[in-house]
Amino acid sequence: MNSGEKQSLIKAVNEASPEGLRQFIINQAQFDPTFFRDVTAQFGDLDTDAELVQTKKLIQSTVRKNKSYGFIDYQGCIVVCNVLDDVINKYMLRFRQGHYHHAMNGLLLVVETAAKMLSDADSSSGALTDTFDRVFGSMKNLSTNIAPEILESQKEIVIKDVVRVFKRKIFAGWPEQRYQVLYNALPLITPKSAKLAQSASRAVIKAADEGFETTQSEIYDKVLHARILIQLGEQSDAEKFMDEHKTIPQIREVEIQNAIQNKNYVRAEELCLEASKQDQGWRRIWEQYLIKIYDATDQQQKQEAVLENRLFANYPDAYEPLKKLRQQDKSWDAQYPTFLAKAAKKLTPENYAFILDKEREFDKLMQLVMQHPELTETYSKDLYSNYPDVVNKLYYQNVVLNEKHPGRQAYRRMGRRIKNYTAFGSVQTAIKWIDGLIDEYPSRPALAEELNKVKKKLQ
User: Fold this and answer.
1) Distance of CA 390 to the CA centre of its chain
2) Which domain of life is it from (predicted)?
3) For 119-139, what is the HEC assignment?
């Protein structure tokens, strides 16, 4: 719903009579089961057991429709994840309506379904990762917000349900996702439920396959122990434990997070700098924390130095914040020529092109694209207005004809690329390309069929 629609709705409700609204709600609820449950959840008694059963049936039906021979394909994974995202939204609404335990159980249903998909779905679209991020974020949000409002005994009931899911065999081989289930419910931990969680963790490690799963689970178990100590307020024991195990990067990260949370920025910086020398594999993580530390303590020069090192190690996400800092201290313009020369030497063509495009250095970008044909598709749109003839030639050679193996799928991709070109280029040129390809390959009817579909849409 956009803002205009929202304002229209508010106006209509404000102008309606109480009796009219009452009758509308009653009538609508009789024909719309979802609306009925939302109304009863907000104003009456929600049948939580029935709603969970219905949610399970919806999820099971969606998975079944999108599963073939025990596997969910690329598109099916997206469809299932979209439904799971809707379920997350519904149970976060239940949380806001005060149905705390029910909301967590709904989120755990999503976790269980997503866990099963780890091994039997094509998740290359990123949809499953996004769903895990959303459901874990929602669990943390729920746990953090209800912790001050519910009794210790109620917290223990919720944690018991979380532990039940944590222990399930569907997480076999996926220790990171398994432990996230517990991590994101830790705001609800109590001394009693802490023992339950740690006992479950030891049982999981014992049952894990030798090798990667056991090694990773043991690390995550230590992280769990450190986080529980912090959550229970046992700060000195937590610091002692983390200091003993800080050679484990994941433990060091928890120690850094804890120091930042307690505004002990000197200790946090010390831990990051020490780690940067010892563990180059996690350097990017430590740099991110240093940037946060220097931002919080207003140490601009140090922050600039970290961002510059990060950028020239080919992490282009550092470019915008580095530029912003230098614009603030009015040094950007003076340093820009030296900065750009260094970028040309240090950065990959992809990352250098990214900066040239952002800075509208189109002459330099055009030269770079001519030297690196793989950049053509990405930057043709931005370069076309200044270099239409050159872009047309490069796009046709490097993008349209970039198919090694002829076939219908290849011809469809060619068609899509030609259509994409018309978003910034000449429709007449696109049609000329299509006609030329069809004339050049008269013995390829599939090519003519696919390209003529595109031509018809362009005319």
Assistant:
1) 37
2) Bacteria
3) HHECCCCCHHHHHHHHHHHHH
